[in-house]
Amino acid sequence: MIGTPPAPPDGRTTPDVAGAVITPGHPEYDAARTVWNAAVDRRPSHVVRCADTEDVRRTLAWARGSGLEVTVRGGGHSIPGHSVIDDGVVLDLGDLDGVFVDPVARTARVGGGCLLADVDRATQVHGLMTPAGAISHTGVGGLTLGGGLGWTMRRFGLTVDNLLSVEVVTADGRVLRADESNHPELFWAVRGGGGNFGVVTEFEFALHELGPLHLAANAFRIEDAPTVLRAMRDVMPTAPDELVWSAFFRFLPDWPWAPAEHVGRPVLLAPLAWVGGVEEGRRRVNEFMADLARRGAEPLATGHGPIEYVTLQRLNDELNGHGHRNYHKSAFLRDLDDATIEVLCARGAVIA
């Protein structure tokens, strides 16, 4: 049950902003508090759909005066649910979704509420991109401030490695532009520090030239998974930066290239992509696939060919769609040794 929040000094029960303020009982309340992870069910006292940076500043000031805690929602994709809070204020940046590309300088200014898809579409018009995730409905803000893994990170670095500057609203209401020269300590802190140092309302990214890629989407039988993972362990430390290779255990989706008799069964999905020219990518990826075959691992299903970068970025969208109950744990390993591979494959065989 949400109680009535204390009134701030000016007596207002909602912030004075241009954007919409949604409270319990509003017809859009449930939609406004719903986030990507269906396991998260929280009830904020206010959801403020900020129209601009000034709305962010005003809402922070009002919440501070009201004694209310605040959280920030960009794309609402936070796995533990940091995008929404019980009995507090959600700063919803979804309307701050502009992307402004300078193709000559190879930079992009990106609103704090943008999704990766917004950035990918706008930059690829010019044959450019910035490294950003692998699920296009992820918010730029949370991904960037946490680091930003993605398809192109081996060649171009993490998302945060390509961050040139940020516009930040601090807790005391200042609006600052932080980069290597201006407020450098703040700029250092936001690059990996999450949302703990202010509300980022705009990002500026460096862009890189990138056209279509070559992709081999592969599904392997569970019994072949140890061979595939050992091959990854052996190959990737010295592989060219253009090669990206990931692996995860899933039920085989009903994809066009998936054999019907295997759909819904546990498999190891292990896509390879070449972040470079399509023809070179086809040749190099085929070499790695041939090495796997020599080791005795043939995919039970595979789809090879050129793919546009925007399409690649959307490839995992359905597998990681909204409305599923998610629980994740992560760990860093110094080495993918045989004992670890054995445990991973044993658990992958009984995924539910």
Q: Could you characterize the architecture of this molecule?
A:
The protein is α+β, with helices and mostly antiparallel strands and 352 residues long. It has three domains: 21-92, Uridine Diphospho-n-acetylenolpyruvylglucosamine Reductase, domain 2 (2-Layer Sandwich); 99-209, Uridine Diphospho-n-acetylenolpyruvylglucosamine Reductase, domain 3, CATH 3.30.465.10; 213-348, Vanillyl-alcohol Oxidase, Chain A, domain 3 (3-Layer(aba) Sandwich), CATH 3.40.462. Helices cover 26% and strands 21% of the residues. It has ten helices and 17 strands. Strands 12, 13, 14, 15, 16 and 17 form a six-stranded antiparallel beta sheet that branches. Strands 5-6-10-8-9 form a five-stranded antiparallel beta sheet. Strands 1-2-4-3 form a four-stranded mixed beta sheet. β5 and β6 form a beta hairpin. The longest helix is centred in the last third of the chain and has 17 residues, at 278-294. The two termini are 34 Å apart. Mean pLDDT is 93; it is low at 1-7.
In the CATH hierarchy, the architecture of the largest domain is: 3-Layer(aba) Sandwich
Beta-strand portion reads 15-25%
Radius of gyration: 22 Å
Q: How far apart, in Å, are the first and last alpha carbons?
A: 34 Å
Number of domains: 3
**Arithmetic mean of pLDDT:** 93
Count of DSSP helices? Answer: 10
Helix and strand string, N-terminal first? Answer: EHEHEEEEHEHHEEHEEEHEEEEHEHH
CATH class of the largest domain: Alpha Beta
Structural class: alpha+beta
Low-confidence stretches: 1-7
Task: Look up the CATH topology of the largest domain.
Answer: Vanillyl-alcohol Oxidase, Chain A, domain 3
By DSSP, the count of extended strands is 17
Instruction: Report the biggest beta sheet as strand number plus sense, adding barrel if it closes.
Output: 6 strands, antiparallel
Q: Describe the global form.
A: globular
Proportion of helical residues: 25-40%
